[in-house]
Structure formats: C-alpha cells, structure tokens
Amino acid sequence: MASILKVDTIQDQAGNLIISKDSGGGGFEGTYFSSTSPKVFTVKVITKTAASPYYSVGSTLGYEVNGIETPIIELKGNDTGKPYYYKFDQSDASNSTHPLRFYNNVSKGTQFTTGVTTSGTPGNAGAHTTIAVDNDTPNVLYYQCSSHANMGNFINHNSSTINTGVFLKLPVADGSNGQSITTNGSGTLAFSTVTETKPTISSVTPTVITNDATNVVIAGANFQEVPFVDAINSSTGAIVTANSVTFTSASSITANFTLPVDGTYFIRIENNDGLAVRSGSAILTVSDAPAWTTAAGSLGTVDATGSVNFTVAATDATSFAKTSGTFPGGVSINAGTGVISGTESGSAATTTYSFTIRATDAQAQTADRAFTITISHGSSGGAQFN
Predict the structure, then answer these.
(1) Whole-angstrom distance, CA of residue 89 vs CA of residue 118
(2) Which one is predicted more confidently, 79 or 100?
(3) Is the dihedral of CA 157, 162, 168, 172 positive or negative?
(4) Domains in the chain and their CATH numbers?
(5) What angle do CA 110, 114, 117 make, to 5 degrees?
(6) Region 267-283 average pLDDT
(7) Are strands 39-47 and 17-21 parallel, antiparallel or unpaired?
(8) How would you label 136-167 residue by residue, b for 16+ Cβ within 10 Å and e otherwise?
(9) Are the beta carbons of 33 and 39 closer than 8 angstroms?
C-alpha cells in the first residue's frame, strides 16, 4: 500500500493558514534538512481568492505552497554551524516570470540574500530558491515575487535577528550593569559603555569684569563651532546669554557679556549636538571697579620738616599703593586706609612731589589717579637767622 504524505496545518487568529509540521507528527520537525536533502516546498502560481490576505491587493496572482494559498510558513534552524535548508521548488510551469525571493517587508524594501541560493528559471525543471536557516536568519521574512506585488506572505522563524523593517542582530551575551545597546550601523547590536563627549570648562580670563560689554576667554575642551554660552547668576539663577561667541578652537572660545547685575556667575556651554556643561563653581565675578572720590591733582602744601597728613579715597577700594612717582622724604601711604603721612625730611628747597596711587577692590579691580604734594621752604631767596 502506497504511503501518504500528511501535511498538518493550523490557523492563526486572523484565519491565515500556517504550514507548521510534516508527517513527523507530534510537533516534531523531522530529520535534519541538509543542503543535499532539504525540506521541499512545492510552489505554484494561482489566481488569488479571498483566502489570500492580499486578495485584490497588488497582483491578481499569488503563490500556492504545498497546495495552500499564500500561507504563513514556519521555519526551523538555530545552530549557525548547522543550518536547516528549505527549498522552494518553482519547477511548475505556472511559476514562469515569478521568481520567489525574500524581503524585509511586504513592499519588498530590502531583499534578504544571506544563505539564499537560486537556480534555474522559474517555470522550468530544476528551478528553485533555497534558504539556509540558522540563528542569524531574521525572525520574519516576506516571500514575494521579485517582479510582481503581493503574491506571497511571510515566514516565521525563532531567531536572535529581529526584522523591524530593518534586520537587527541581537547580542549573544548579556552586557554589564549600566551598559547600553549600540549598533555598528550595519544591523549588529551589542552592549557597550556609552560615553558622551561633553564640553568641559577649565577657566575664564579675566575672572572679574565690570557691567560693561566685555570679552571673556573660556578655556576647556570639546567645544564645537559655535556653541551657545550663558552666564548664570549664582544667587538669583538669572540667565544672561552672551552677546556673541567667537570660536577659536576646540579648547578656546571668546564670549562677549553685558552683565548689568553685580555678583558671581556660573558659565554654561551647550554644543550644537545638545551636550552641555556648567562650570562647577561661579567662576566669573561682575563688579564695578573702584571709583575715586578724591580729586586728582594737588593734595596740599606742607612746610619743610612739617607733618604730612592727607587721605585719598575710592569707593569699594580695599587697598591703596603708590605705583609710580615719589613721595616727600619720610612720607608713606597706609595700604588699608589710604592715609599718606609722615614727617617731611630731606628737601633743600620748595619741591612738588608727583606720584600715582592705585586703588584696588576685593575683586582685584584697580583704578589709578595722579596726585601731588608740595613741600614749602618759604619765600624764594629768604633767609633764616638764629
């Protein structure tokens, strides 16, 4: 008695027929399907009916596989060293001009060719398309005619390569805590430690500026052309964007700021890729420079050998110092108070002494002013009698 090949089928929830197993029964696939003894699917081309999910879509023709119209086909094979081979036999004359190929989606956006071999001309003896299925074969493939639309359906496969419209191969091992999945740009995913190349700030020059528009050179690393730069008031959080930014290099930019409110400021830099950094401390100080309240010029006249006592003053000044010129002999300045005092000595005639005093504030800002003191020896040509 002749044996009968039994092909069991099931339906999915949408009613699509799934070729699921052969005469092995019990859910077993059967023996190993090698390259020399593949599992064969007999393909014919028929006029589509309502049994096809693509009835009235694309071509009026569709594939019939092992007597079932456009089925969902389940393939096996997970060992990359031992792929299972499936042969789609297109010897039947109805296959003429309808080559069966595999794609990433119904619309045939990208053809899948790995492990796929073709032979002969469809509709002629020996014509076939064979696919070697292993762990790298995508979990979903669409078998379609390369020349006509919507003639086939899709293939299911339990795989670590996922078809999301693009073929993505999942990692074969777990990564470390905190790692991310990255791609090599060709569909291979892997766990890796992702590091962002953020800008860094090391210093600003000058560290103290006035309320006027001032250029501030910012040194650091990983600057892009041209970043956004802000100054953030450390007390109020108010943000002031730089008037302009000049890119010098990846390690130096110049920002022009007008900061009307005195205080200390954080500096924030944001590159064009969105990566940003804020200085760890308020590294820029805005403060008015000392303003002199003592008028320039003569502080007064003192008789020879007399007591000298003058005071110079400037707002916000914390120290005073003579930077040039000469005091009368025996005279010096108190650095903290601005008092110029002493008992004059050493002059032989009426002399005007010229000098410059520098006032410095707590932020090391300075203001210079020129003064004079005259030491008098009486009328010219006079004499002293004992």
Answers:
(1) 10
(2) 100
(3) negative
(4) 8-163 (2.60.40.420), 166-195 (no CATH), 200-286 (2.60.40.10), 291-376 (2.60.40.10)
(5) 105
(6) 96
(7) unpaired
(8) bbbbbbbbbbbebebbbbbbebebbbebeeeb
(9) yes
CA dihedral 147, 152, 157, 159 (to 10 degrees): 40
Between β-strands 291-292 and 8-11, what pairing exists: parallel, antiparallel or unpaired?
unpaired
87-144 confidence digits (pLDDT tens): 999 999 999 999 999 999 999 999 999 999 999 999 999 999 999 999 999 999 999 9
pLDDT of 6 higher than 50: no
